[in-house]
Amino acid sequence: MQIPKDLIESAQTKISGLSNPADFYQLRSSFLGKNSHLTKLFSSLKDLPKDEKIAFAKELNSIKSGLEALFEDAFSNLSSKETSTNKNIDLTLPGINHGLGSLHPISIVTEKITSYFETNSYSVFFGNEVESDFYNFEALNFPANHPARQMHDTFYVEEDQSYLLRTHTSNTQIHAMMKYGAPLKMLSPGRVYRCDSDNTHLPMFTQVEGLVVDPSASFGKLKGTLINFLHHFFDDEMEVRFRPSFFPFTEPSAEVDIRFGKKGWLEVLGCGMVHPNVLKGCGINPAQYNGFAFGMGIERLAMLYFGVEDIRDFYNSDLEFLQQFRPSL
Ligand code: PHE
């Protein structure tokens, strides 16, 4: 077995010819790395007879320490060279502008809605996105196999359909009523999931739920609350109309439309008086308390507010699109 005598000299020559400091590690590893000639010689030690092995190992180790010392020196030379070049940096030059980030348009709208209701003394409550059938359906008066479940194209998490990605934020009504009882005034923004996708629907979108449980809660107060909110949100005293509708957990129920310029009547949210079965199931006496609830899709409101035509634009991560919503400084 031969040890190339000139290993150290050849390393020296290559180090002095190093024009780009970035190549340093590659050079070091060609002499000392896993695939270097030296490492191969070390692994061949095992095949030598014992007496030769000791002498050969000694020699290899001394070459190895020689190379290591050489590269260590070279490294400190390179770093000091870099620092001395750094001294030539002109500190008066303007810095590199990395640009300022901002909130996502959906976060901007969620924040706008949440802060309005917080000012009106609603508490904010966050619910679970992975939810049991009980909170998403059963406790909201959707019995198993009820046709109303068909309005929600559900992503089930478990084979036996006991857990799912919540289809609406109404699950938080149940959690909040069971946890805090009555009276209650709460708002709950968050993501919801439905098996649906086109230019106005996404499999994942955002809703805000509102719930008021109080002896004085009435349909009149529900109407007033929503009309005031919509006027505030759009900063426009637009016409608002309530159309009779159906949700299993509210009775009576309504869908709310706004008259939106040239677009005419547009549906923006669902609402109603909390069904007595729902209150009862949460341990609240429906003879003593009334409740009203409303739920709205934030992307829908954001599309109208910002004039976005395709809901998918919100989630394409296209910076040019998202930068339009940067706050002006
Ligand atoms: N959860 C309903 C939906 O997603 C909306 C709603 C909320 C309706 C609260 C009435 C009361 O369609």
Tell me the domain tally. Answer: 2
User: Roughly what is the average pLDDT, rounded to an integer?
Assistant: 91
Compute the number of strand runs.
Answer: 10
CATH superfamily of the largest domain: Bira Bifunctional Protein, Domain 2
Number of helices in the DSSP assignment: 11
Along the chain, the helix and strand elements come as HHHHHEEHEEHEEHEEEHEHH
The structural class is alpha+beta
Sketch the major β-sheet.
7 strands, mixed
Give start-end ranges of low-pLDDT stretches. Answer: none
Assign the CATH architecture of the largest domain: 2-Layer Sandwich
Q: In CATH terms, what is the fold-level topology of the largest domain?
A: BirA Bifunctional Protein, domain 2
Distance between the termini: 72 Å
**% residues in beta strands:** 15-25%
Ligands bound, unique: phenylalanine
Commentary on this structure:
The protein has 329 residues and is α+β, with helices and mostly antiparallel strands. The chain folds into 2 domains: 7-86; 105-325, Bira Bifunctional Protein, Domain 2 (BirA Bifunctional Protein, domain 2, 2-Layer Sandwich). Helices cover 39% and strands 20% of the residues. The protein contains 11 helices and 10 strands. The chain has helices at 7-16, 24-32, 37-44, 50-86, 105-119, 133-136, 171-180, 219-234, 276-281, 298-306, 319-322, and strands at residues 123-124, 130-132, 155-156, 163-165, 184-193, 204-214, 240-247, 250-259, 265-274, 290-297. The strands form 2 sheets. Strands 1-5-6-10-9-8-7 form a 7-stranded mixed beta sheet, sandwiched between helices. A hairpin with a 6-residue loop joins strand 3 (155-156) and strand 4. The longest helix has 37 residues, at 50-86. The radius of gyration is 34 Å and the shape is elongated. The chain starts with 6 loop residues before the first helix and ends in a 7-residue tail after the last helix. The model has no long low-confidence stretch (mean pLDDT 91). Bound molecules: phenylalanine (PHE). The site of phenylalanine has 11 residues, from strand 9 and strand 10.
